[in-house]
Amino acid sequence: MELVRETSEVRRALDAVRRGGRTLGLVPTMGYLHAGHRALIEAAARACDEVVVTIFVNPTQFGPREDFGTYPRNLEGDLALCLEAGATWVFAPDTATMYPGGADVPATRVVPPSNLTGGLCGAFREGHFTGVATVVAKLFALWQPDRAYFGLKDFQQTAVIRALATDLMFPVLIELVPTVREPDGLAMSSRNVYLTTEARGRARALSRALEAGWQAARGPGASVKGVTSAASAVLAATGGLQVQYLALVHRDTLAPLDDLSAPGVLAVAAVVEGTRLIDNVALDGPSPLVGALQREAVS
Ligand code: PAF
């Protein structure tokens, strides 16, 4: 595995891929890698001949009062995980490489459609998805991958990136990988490191709420109201959570669901002692707590 920092080295790596008629999988990340990222890299390594993991804490997707400065970083640990998971290259550019004129100067940006960014996280993080779409478009243009891998935990981001690839005609297959959870159901996130023991306990309410909604969708006379009420009851019963949204939306359009006949995703965002957490579950997919409940029954 090789660590690549400059665009000239990217071109060299790409030449080798093309000359050998090899396929390339791209796994974009912001580093501080965990088992969720590992699942992305392993999925890429299973399907592609070569895998590049990108590690770049992208300044343009953070708001002025967000955690860009304190976002956790650990390149050494990340390199070890990438090697084990089967990466060929790790691309860890600096800001000047990704934004040659500077990250905050006017430059070409990719602005995703407002129907995908106006609600959910987009309503609380102005400009966030423009930053995400811009950096992902740059990575697609630079690395020209055959496939790119994203985690379903960032459900709205996956909708934005699918639209980006289609609308800008990037010849890349977007592969979505299920959320990896801690044993008690908490979705893995680099930001979980911010949680104190008490906040960590409260954070479990997100996956519990999604589970309650998922169960309600299976009950007799299930309805949109029934699903959201069951989930919000769990959140309301947990102190110290600032819920930003709890919404049942269409899997592809992200429009609020009127009834349960369309494919729905129940999504939640809450701030726990200053740490913003998100999670979601597809109502027609597996329970978010399937593993956790089995483990609880056994212990
Ligand atoms: O999901 C992330 O880690 C980031 O939003 C991404 C896709 C790497 C873009 O910076």
C-alpha-based Rg, rounded: 19 Å
**What's the helix count?**
10
* Overall residue-averaged pLDDT value: 96
| Beta fraction | 15-25%
Task: Supply database-style keywords.
globular; six-stranded parallel β-sheet; 299 residues; single chain; 10 helices; alpha/beta; three-stranded antiparallel β-sheet; binds pantoate
Short description:
This protein has 10 helices and 9 strands.
Furnish the topology, listing elements before pairings.
Blueprint: E1 2-4, H1 7-19, E2 24-29, H2 35-47, E3 50-55, H3 75-85, E4 89-91, H4 95-98, H5 114-117, H6 128-143, E5 147-151, H7 155-167, E6 173-177, H8 197-216, H9 224-236, E7 241-250, E8 264-272, E9 275-282, H10 290-298
Parallel strand pairs: 1-4, 2-3, 2-5, 3-4, 5-6
Antiparallel strand pairs: 7-8, 8-9
This protein binds pantoate.
Structure, explained:
- It is a single chain.
- This protein has 299 residues and is α/β, with parallel strands linked by helices.
- The protein contains 10 helices and 9 strands.
- The chain has a 6-stranded parallel sheet, sandwiched between helices. The protein has a 3-stranded antiparallel sheet with strand order 7-8-9, with helices on one face.
- The longest helix is centred in the C-terminal third of the chain and has 20 residues, at 197-216.
- The mean pLDDT is 96.
- The structure holds pantoate.
